[in-house]
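New to this. Explain these tokens.
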Amino acid sequence: MKNLLLLLILVSSTTVTIGQDFDESLQRACEVMGDHYKKREHRKSVEGDKCELKFKVATRDDEDARQFCELNAPWRLIKVERTQDADRHFTICHVEATLMCQPGWVQMFGHCFKMPNKKKVATREEAVNMCKEAHPDADIAFMHHRYIVGVWKNYFRGLKQIWVRATESWDKYIQKTDTVDGDSLALAFSGKHFRFSVFYNSLIKILPDIRLQVLCEYKPPITNAEINFLGKRYSEIYYPVVTVKTGILVRSASSYTGSADILDICKVGVV
């Protein structure tokens, strides 16, 4: 055991257990509107599934293209391209599915989403049970940020009103229905329901026995590809990371005690 004037954090994904070895949602999206699909070599690969999603959309500059891709291609964004063919403008989103959602689920911003039954409406309690039946770790969809509403509309056609979860910071956006107000949070893409009427895209708190559509979500297990991606982002801000078979080594100004093998790897990485 030795000491270094570096803090080396070993981030490991050896506990990952997952059935499939690729993300089906990116594969399907790539078949419809993408090109150059590359499936990961195996489920423990440090690189995920990759695709170039091509949109017939003109963007002003690279930053505008990046914002567009982050909203319309909700996997890990690698880079963006802006091209032109005659009078047609295109925005190409190079994305990577670092995580792996179960078949039938769509990966968005590090989470997996699914409508278990597009034609069925349910009370709040029934919605929770439907999500648990769809996946043991699933729950009603959570509003991670304000832009996710538009992404849900793009990928789940026919959404009208759904049950949602959110932090208290969203309370200031809640609208009154004046007819069925309660304690259960919901999102009305279409403001017209036979029990209430509000502006479209309204966040509301209503009685839990109202029947709405159900959108479920669960957090997939961490993968080597996700750890590698996060390590690259860390490298852009702080220090370069060292990729190893079980994850990444991250350094900072502190001390570390570990095995000689790990220290040898680190010495190579910091030269």
Notes: DSSP finds six helices and 19 strands in the chain. The two ends are 21 Å apart (CA to CA).
